[in-house]
Records
---
Amino acid sequence: MNRLAFEKSPYLLQHKDNPVDWYPWGKEAFNKAKEENKPLFISIGYSTCHWCHVMNRESFQDEEVAELLNRYFVPIKVDREERPDIDKVYMIFAEAMIGFGGWPLNVVATPDGKPFFIGTYFPKRTRDRMIGLLDLLNRVNNLWESKRNEIVTEASEIVEEVKKQYLTGRKGKIDSDIFMTAKEELKRIYDRKNGGFGFKPKFPMPQYIWYLLEYGARNDDKEALEMAELTLEKMYKGGIFDHIGYGFYRYSVDEKWLIPHFEKMLYDNALLGIVYAKAYNLTGKGFYKDVAEKIYSFAVRELLSQDGGFYSALDAESEGTEGKYYVFTYDEIIEILGKYLGEVYCKYYNITKKGNFSGANNPNLIGVNLEEIFSDDIEKLEKAREILFEYRGRRIKPHRDEKILTSWNGLIIGSLANAGRVFRNDDYIQMAVKSADFIVSNLIDSNGNLMSTFIDGKAYNFGFLEDYAFLLYGLLELYESCKDNKYLDLSISLADKMINLFEDKDDGGLYFYSDLSEELILRPKDFRDGATPSGNSMATIGLLKLFKITQDVKYRDLAEKIIYSWGQDINDYPLDYLYLLIAAHEFLTP
C-alpha cells in the first residue's frame, strides 16, 4: 500500500494499492518535489468516474508506468469532490491551455504547483493521434532535464496571464433584453426532434430547462415552454432514465438520449427533481409529478444514509464493465418474465435480440406514445419492472461513493422541500428536515464555520462557496415549506458568514474558497455554471430569496453587486450564467 491508504476519500483509497508512489495533496509532496527538483504529476478524478477507472487499470496499476512516475516525478492524487478548490484552479488552466477539461485531469507542474502541461485521459501506449502516458512521461522528463529554467519561467508566465484573463469579470449592468437573448440562444441550439440542446454527447442541463420554464411562464412564451416540455418528455423516455430502478444517469452519449454514461450523481437528480416539479407546478400535468417522484424514490432508496445525509454517487461500472448492472439481453428478459409478459415488456421498452448496448439492451421508451399505452398494459409493465428490479438487485452492485458533501446535500434538501410544497407531500419535507438537521449537527464547527465533507463520522475541510450557497438555497426552500423560523435563522447566519468569508469587497463577487482555506496559486471566483450551479449563481438566488423574506436591503445590494461584477460577460455569453439570470429574472419580473 502507498500513502493513500491513510486517506478518507473513496477515490484516493481506490489507488492505495497502486505501485505508483502516490502522495495526497499536501506539504510533504511539495517539499519532496522542491528538495529533489522534480516536477509534480497531479492526477485529479473521483470515485465513480469511468475514465478514471480505465486509466487506473491501464496505467496506474502498471509497473512500467509506475517506474517512470516514481523515478522522474512526485505523483499526487486528488479527489475533485473532496477538494473542489484544487480541481477548479487546474480546470481554469485546462480551459486556458487546451480549451477544455474533463476527468481524469492530469497536470504536470513545477515543484510549486504551476502547470506547464495539462491533459485528460491518456492510454498507456500511444495510439492513433493520442499520445500514450509512457511516451508523455519520457518526453516531459527529457524537457525538464534539458530546458528546466525555460519551463519554470513559462509556467510563471502562464499563471500571470491566467490571473489577468480568467479571474476578473467585465463589469456592467445586464442588458434590458438579456432574458429574451438567452431564450433565443437556447432556441438556436435546441434539438427540435429529440429535445435537449446541442448534439452528442447530450447532457440534461437542468439550468436550460429551469430557465425556459421560468421565462415561458413569466412572459407567456409558449415556445419557451414547449422547448422545456419536449426536453423533459424525451429525457424521461430515453435510456438516460433508469426505467427499472429510477433516477437519471449522468449524460447520453448520443443525441436521442438512448445510451447513457451509467453513472448516477446526487446533484443531477436533485436539480432534475426541481425542474420536473416546476413543470408540474406550471402545467398541472401529472406526468411531471410522476417522474419527479421516481427521481426521489431512487435518491432516498440508494443514496440516503441512515443518519439523514445523502451520499454522493453510484458508479457507472460494476465488475469492471460499464453498464453491466443495468442492461439485459432479450433472452434474459424472456427467461425472467416468461414469454407472454416478457414480450409485452420487450415491445414497449425496445428490447431486441440485437441489442442497443454491446449486444445487450438498455430499456427505453423512445418512440412510444405514453398516452397510448393501454391501462392493462401499464399494470403489466409495472409488474414486469418490479420483477426485473428484484432480479437486478441480486447482481453485483456498482460502487457507491459514501462521501456526504454539504453542497450537494444543500441541493437535495432544497429539491425535496420544493417538491413537498408543490406536491403537498409532507414526507418529502420531513426528509429535507432530517437531512438539514444532519448537516447542521455534523458539518458546522464550534466557531460556526461550515465544513464541506463528512466521511466515517468525521467532518473536515472548511466549506467552499458552493457549500454555503447551496445549503443556503436548501434551507430557504425548507423554510418556505415548513415555516419553521429555525431554518430562517440558520439561513441568515449562514448568509452573513458567507459574505464575511468570501466577498471580494474591491471587485465584487464571491471567491471560490474562503480566507480559512489553504491558499492556492489562484483564488478564483466561480461564476460560470457547469454540471452544478456556480457558487455565485446560487448565492445570488439565496440572497434575493432572503431579501424577499426579510426585506433587509444588504442582501439585495450584494446580489446586485455580484451580477454587476460580471455583467458584461453575462451579456455576451448568457447561457454560461443561466442560474444567475434565473435569479435576476425572478427579481426583476415578479
Note: The chain has three domains: 3-166, 178-319+401-588, 326-394.
---
Amino acid sequence: MTTDKINLDDTLKIVDLLLKEDKSLSPQARLVIELLTAIVVKQAEQLQRAKEQIQALSDEIAILKGNKPRPKIPKSKLEGKDAKTDETKNDADKRPGSAKKSKTAQLEIHETVTLIPEGIGKGWTFKGFSEVVVQGLVIEPHNTKYRRGRWLTPDGETVIAPLPAGISGHFSPTLISYIQHQYFACRVTQPLLLEQLREIGIDISSGQINDILINDKDSFHEEKAGILAAGLKVSSFVQTDDTGARHEGKNGFCTCISNDLFAFYTSTGSKSRINFLELLRAGHSDYLINADAFSYMKLQGLTQCVVSLLTDSDAKHFENAQAWQTHLANLGVISARHIQIVTEAALLASALSHDLPRDMVILSDDAGQFNVMIHALCWIHAERIINKLIGFNDEQRAALTKVRDEIWRLYKKLKEYKESPSEVLRQEIDTEFTTIFAQKTCFETLNQALKRLEKNKPELLRVLDYPMIPLHNNGCETDIRDPVTKRKVSGGTQSQLGRMARDTFTSLKRTCRKLGVSFWKYLNDRNAALNHIPSLGQLIVQKAAAA
C-alpha cells in the first residue's frame, strides 16, 4: 500500500486491533504505540487546519479574480433554529409597507374615469358601477418657473420675492429626495442614476448629482449624531460589529452600533478599542480623568507610577485629542501600552459623563475592541468554533456530535430563562455550562475549543443577569450588511464628505426602518423643510418610553 492511499481512520482501527489482539507486546511498547498514535492524530488535526487556511486564501484569490469560491460550511443548528424561533418579530417591527392590509382601501384616488359599455339598448337597466382601482406612477419632468417680483423702495433698496421654503437651487425637493433615495436606499450607482435621469428628461450633470448627494448635508449629519446620543441614553444594551470600508484607496473600517431602536454607522481608519470608545462619546470630543478612569486603569493592570502621574496632576479635563496628547507628553507617558490604557480610560470616563448608562451591555462577537462596559458574547459565533471542527474517526465524530447536542440543549434553556427567569433554572444553566465546557473528550482540538469557550463563561451567560439582551448578534449582523452591500456595489469613498454622507444616510435609513418611518417620506419632509416628522432622536426616546 502506498502512503498516498493510507486512510487515517483505517490506520487507527489497525492500531486499536493490534493493541487488543497482540498479547506479546510489552507495556513499554504499548505506551510507545499509544504516544505515536496521539502524535499522528495531533499532526493530522494541524494538517486539517492548515488545509482550511489554504482553502480560505484560495477562496479569497478566486473572489479577487472574479471566480466563485467553494460552498461555505452549512449553518449551525443554533443559527437555523434561532432564525425561526428566537427573538420573534412582531408586526410593529416590520418595515413600512410590509404588513398585510386591504390592497385599495387606503389608496388616494387622483383621477376617476367613468366607462359606459357600447351599444346600450332599449330596456337595459342600470345597476351601478363595478369599480376597479389601477395603481400608476407618473415619471416625467415637472419644471417650474418662479417669477420673483422685484421692487424698489423709496430708500433705493431692491426687494425681491423669496423662493418657497425648501427651494435653494435649480432642483426641486422631490427630485433631490428621489436622487438620495435611489443612491442610498436603492443602491443605484451615480453613472446609472445620471443615465436614468437624462432619459426621463432631467437636464443634470454628474457633478450636480454628486453635490446633491454629499454637499451641504449638515442638518442630516446633526440628526444622525442625535440618533446615537438618544439611542445610548435610553437603551439597556447595544449590539456592535465592524466591516471593511476602503477610503481614498486605503483600507478602513465601518463600525455599526445598533439595537431594535436605531442603527448608527461611522467609518474610520481603525477598529481599535480607542476608536470604539470614541464613538461611545456620542459626538463629544473631550477626555476626562476621574474615578471611572482610575477604575479602568486598575482593571487593566496599569503600573502605579503612571497612575500616580495622572493623580498628582491638577489637569483632569481636556477639550480634544491634541490637548490630551500634549498632557501625556508633558507627564512623560511615552510607552505605547501606557498611552493606550490611559487613553481608553479617559475616553470611557468621558462617555459615562455624557449620559452613557453605567449598566450598558455591549453585545458582540469575540472581537477584543468591543470588550468594554458589561460585555456579552454572541452564542452563534461561539458555537461556530465547534461547528467548523471535523472529526478524523468515528470516535471523534461521535464526541463532536454529542457536544454540539449538549450546547443546543443549553441554548434552549437560555431561551426559556429569557422568557421566564428563575433562580432554579439559573443554577441549572450555570452547572450545565461547566459540565459541558470543562469536559475532556477523545478529540484534542475539541477539548481546546471547549477550554477557550469556558474562559468566556461570564460573557456567554450574561443573559442570566440581563434577560432583556439577545443571545446572539444577528441583529447587528443584519445591519452591517448595508455598508457591505454598498461597498460591493459602489466601491470605496474618495472624499471625506462622501464618507460622511454614506454613513449618515445609511444610519438614517436603517433607523427609519426600525422606527416604522418611511425613508422616502422622511427625505421629502426634510428636503422640503417641512419638518412634520419629528427628529429621529425624539422618536427613539418616544418608542423606548412606550416599550
Note: The CA atoms of residues 74 and 80 lie 10 Å apart.
